[in-house]
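Exercise: predict the fold of this chain.
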Amino acid sequence: MKTTHTIDNTEDLIDSRDVIARIEELLDEMPDDDADARRWDGWAELQTLEKLAKEAECAPDWSYGETLIRRSYFVDYTEQLINDCYELPKEMNSGQWPYRHMTIDYEAAARELEHDYTSVDFDGVEYLIRYV
């Protein structure tokens, strides 16, 4: 009986605990015979996830829950992080001059934030994971 979902590189955000749980689940399902294991439907997924885990274990909180962020989603992730963690002055949303002309450069913020992240490959797709 499957308890976790298949994890692939189309997701914007992946929790490391889900990767760990999926690997454990696949190992439990894997046939004991080597020849059967290589023909088993879960073989390719297991190999891919184990490779990802080996590369991403550099993150200090890998086993406790670290977020892998798809490179193409990193600016959106940064914007969400800023909005969740920081309270902007109320005037920024007032629509009044000069505040209506002030914007946050989320791309620049993402470039700066990226200094705390390292890149990992998930089956040909780049993900960022915090490593400091």
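Check your answer against the key: The helical segments are 16-29, 34-39, 43-56, 62-65, 74-85, 106-113.
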